[in-house]
Design brief:
The chain contains four helices and six strands; from the N terminus they run H-E-E-E-H-H-E-E-H-E. Helix content is about 25%, strand content about 20%. The protein binds zinc ion (ZN) (2 copies).
């Protein structure tokens, strides 16, 4: 938002953000609600394996631009503003053919370097960086079921 402020792009002052955790979710979505907007962001974009600028921030700005006046479609004013933001900050905000702003491409996430598995519910926690959890999984418990954790990769 501060990046848009700096180049005088006026997005809606009335926006709420929702994280979508469905596996095959779209990357982002912007819906008009009453006098404001709801922006949905795919949870996958919060994964540390994704590129923050070209994943999360790119998607958020794409959606923020839809809240500017007359910008619900990917043409006209929206396309002009997207080009302005891309030029100012080196984003690659693109129009998509569909209204849903694209689905998550296969191979979007780099493979995990470390995998911690819960012996209880079998949930897997993936990491690309070493951390106390990676080094000492026995000191932690599964957040979902409280089960014991072990490193399997
Ligand atoms: Zn869009
Ligand atoms: Zn568990």
């Amino acid at each position: 938002m501060s990046e848009l402020d700096a180049i005088k792009i006026k997005y809606s002052p009335n926006i709420s953000f929702v994280i979508n955790s469905r596996a095959k979710a779209r990357l982002g979505l912007c819906k008009k609600t009453g006098n404001g907007y709801v922006i949905e962001i795919a949870e996958i974009l919060l994964d540390e394996r994704t590129d923050e600028k070209h994943g999360l921030k790119n998607t958020i700005i794409h959606e923020l631009l839809h809240t500017c006046r007359g910008c619900m479609k990917h043409t006209g004013k929206w396309a002009e503003l997207a080009a302005k933001v891309n030029a100012a900050y080196g984003y690659s905000i693109k129009r998509t053919s569909k209204r849903d702003d694209g689905t998550i491409p296969p191979g979007f996430l780099a493979p995990a370097k470390y995998i911690i598995k819960c012996r209880g519910c079998q949930a897997e926690i993936t990491r690309i960086k070493r951390s106390p959890l990676v080094d000492y999984p026995q000191n932690y418990r599964c957040a979902k079921c409280g089960g014991k954790l072990e490193r399997i990769k």
